[in-house]
Design brief:
Number of helices: 5
Helix content: 25-40%
Oligomer: single chain
Radius of gyration: 16 Å
Number of strands: 5
């Protein structure tokens, strides 16, 4: 009996338990600096129009289904306050790292302006636009 095959079969069975899809956090890290990044502008996180559960849904979809590396773009002096704010709201489960605009990471961006290529422009992340954002993310990846 092939032990590797058994493990993969049992793992696939546990992931599909009760028709729920669980995100496996055990996939190979492809790393920052590749085109597998989703960079979310901090302006979309703290705007009153954005919904916390919609943000969580978008980041979970990007990480689990599209295998993207979620990054939050924020100014250097605001990294700690954003971390505390997002941790309090439960938004840190699918966020990998904070970056500054000076780091020039490549990847798909969610932003309020078209400052970079491969940018999806939106004024907020809410339940009204999650299907549009997920379909655009799927097209870009």
């Amino acid at each position: 009996m092939n032990l590797n095959f058994c493990f993969e079969y049992l793992y696939a069975e546990s992931v599909q338990l009760n028709n729920f899809r669980f995100c496996s956090h055990i996939y190979n890290y492809t790393g920052v600096k590749n085109n597998v990044n989703l960079i979310i502008s901090s302006l979309l996180i703290d705007t009153p129009l954005s919904d916390n559960l919609a943000i969580r849904y978008i980041t979970a979809y990007a990480k689990c289904d599209l295998k993207l590396y979620n990054l939050i773009e924020v100014e250097q002096e605001l990294k700690d306050p954003y971390y505390a704010y997002m941790k309090e709201l439960g938004l840190m489960d699918y966020i990998e790292e904070y970056i500054t605009p000076e780091e020039y990471e490549s990847g798909v961006r969610l932003d309020v302006d078209f400052n970079y290529t491969r940018t999806i422009k939106t004024n907020c992340i809410s339940f009204e636009n999650t299907s549009s954002l997920t379909s655009q993310l799927k097209i870009f990846t």
